């Protein structure tokens, strides 16, 4: 019987358990998928902890995976058994040997992208794609600030920004992570354990600030990030690794230079099949061209999902984190 990580109550990593879990019936528009690799993302910890409430418990976990098609529903015509596919926008329950997924969520993998790469990049890579090209359109020559530059999203963002001709500025939490971020496109890396964020950003930009900040950290860096922005700059907060951003008086944005603030999510940028295909193909293109390489920092057996979560939340990971069935 297939196995899946499930949890019966919200809480810390210890609530995760590996259980025998029968697959649901395959509907006419569904695909039975055997996983070869599964992506671990910060949003998974939000679901597990209850920060992002789920409809009900017990529940599976995970939104990203890659593998091979086992069988398809009667109405599925563009996929067949043996096809290599990946997904990064759910449905919830990716932490499993096998899953039943709507065909509309899957994209075929190009031959030069393997399952582990795919599971390490679909959610993160498509996130970077929409952040840099749709939420705020980065242009050549722009200085751009990215927090958690040595994380899964950060490593992809640094390379993609360099590819676009921007000047990536990344932050990391320790000196040990500086070389990794620098090797993945960042022209400047700020070690927050040793350096003042606002002072360094204004030094790098000759006092002008940056036109955009991409922040997946949340509470710990939000206030200082606003002070790193240029007049009319855009604050993009897309994650809560350090906790949720507190409520904000809109006049704060006025007083700091008529700033823009947005809190986007990938699912709203992949709501249609055309949007999903567009972001996935943009990601495949930069990876296949060599402009962006996917850094898988650590892998864990599926049964050790709790350890993977503990390491992720303890800032002991770099790049993408993968579970192997």
Automatic annotation (TrEMBL):
Classification via PROSITE patterns: QOR_ZETA_CRYSTAL
Domain Enoyl reductase (ER): 11-323
GO cellular component: cytosol
UniProt keyword terms in alphabetical order: NADP, Oxidoreductase
Record-linked InterPro entries: ADH-like_C, ADH-like_N, ER, GroES-like_sf, NAD(P)-bd_dom_sf, QOR-like, Quin_OxRdtase/zeta-crystal_CS
Matching Pfam families: ADH_N, ADH_zinc_N
Name of the protein: NADPH2:quinone reductase
